[in-house]
């Protein structure tokens, strides 16, 4: 089956609903999957994509949502274990080349290692922004470890 600019977003919480809306505005065909029908109310009034109610860890639901035609899947539910499972299914069973998964716990990244899954960790992204802003510079410190974040490298 030919891949398109179809994007699946698993999870319609704050992140998922905003991501889906932005992707639609960029011209992508977006399908949002969520177990809770009420979650779709978070989507903007001008959302032009599709909604599929169901469990995105269920391959039948992913099939109904069009994973066979998808170019990308973003697993952005509020549950790391669910996001991990969705990402593994998309990468392993469907061979999707672009898979993104939000993990609140960065230590879970090893679960998708080697699958080509791009892990997004909000806490780490926030720390990177604080680092770039210069807030994480130690007073009076000089040299290569003057910034807190450089100790982690």
Secondary structure blueprint with pairings:
Elements: E1 6-10, H1 14-25, E2 29-34, E3 50-53, H2 59-65, E4 70-75, H3 80-93, E5 98-102, E6 117-120, H4 122-133
Parallel strand pairs: 1-2, 1-4, 2-3, 4-5, 5-6
How would you describe what is shown here?
A six-stranded parallel beta sheet has the order 3-2-1-4-5-6, sandwiched between helices. The longest helix has 14 residues, at 80-93. It is of the alpha/beta class. β1, α1 and β2 (29-34) form a beta-alpha-beta unit. It has helices at residues 14-25, 59-65, 80-93, 122-133, and strands spanning 6-10, 29-34, 50-53, 70-75, 98-102, 117-120. It is built from four helices and six strands; from the N terminus they run βαββαβαββα. The mean pLDDT is 88. The chain starts with 5 loop residues before the first strand and ends in a 20-residue tail after the last helix.
